[in-house]
Amino acid sequence: MTLSAYEQREWDRLQKRKAAALDKQTRNLLPQQARDRLASLAQKARSAPGADKVAAAYGGAAMGLGKAVGGTASRTVSRKRVVEQYRRAGHDISGLDGIRELDLRVIDEVAKHNSVRYGHALSAAATGLGSAAAVTGGEVLAGAGTVAGAGAGAAPGIGTVAGAMAADTAMTLALASRTVAATALYYGYDPSDHEEELFVMSVIAVGMSTGTSAKTAAYAELSQLTQMLVRNAPWAKLNEKVLTKIAKAFAAKFSQQLTKKKFGQLVPIAGMAVGAGLNYMLIDRIAVSARDAYRERFLIEKSDSDLNDDPNDHDFIDVEVAQDDDVIGVMELLREEGALPTSTSTDTEDQPTN
Question: Which of 150, 156, 171, 271 has a CA positioned 20 to 30 A from the CA of residue 111?
Fold first, then answer.
């Protein structure tokens, strides 16, 4: 199918934005002096009595709650409501498949991108603010001096810290899932399908990536997954059991990455702003990543795969990721479970259409 002039212009804009994102230096919420201060306090926190219990409780709870709440968030986005929005706008479609037959300009007129983006980002900020307040109120870290000398007296606050941070991670993952799921529906994709759940995870991974090498790897994985879905690659081993294992592993990695980003929440006063700011920025990045990812996939499918990335770009899936960079490898999780499509290889450039 030939793209309209509007769709071709949007494709060109997408490619420019992607190139700019890969060239862009990572922005930090705090100045270097403040980050050094947080790093010092974080080091003391790790050595404080009971810190290992906080980390274990936080990671374990986030993994379980993240999967449960995140899955629920995806399912609560109404497919019927989205289809009805298009019908009210004068487009006679009976389901999500009909959306993918429309011009991209129509989607831009109907889809509430800003509502999805800013609404979820603000909700995330409120969640971060609340968890930071709970952590601060726990009196585990009243200041630099009490971190090292907290001793057994800090024990009662450890549960408060672990619970608040675990709940924050679970809710952040839920909001991330819902943000991507809502975007998927507006472009005609059902996020409850098994293969679509993988795409949702991959989009979240792009939004989570901040370092240049991590962004490069995340974009490469998303591009490869896009090609698998566009070409209807067979997912014979992607059953409910395997998908649940992948989702749990993804949630655990999400928890670890967010823990690293949000250690500043353990600092009184500054932690309040850091918690809210990081949550807002993360969900905002994920919303933008979702919009671009589904637009690109929509246009590739509509062009019958005439639009495509350079196949050589897939070579940087194996890029060496810097130690301080954040990346969640969805394709790696699929390989570990032996769930990659049987006719699709990571080192094969030309795949057959099924």
Answer: 171
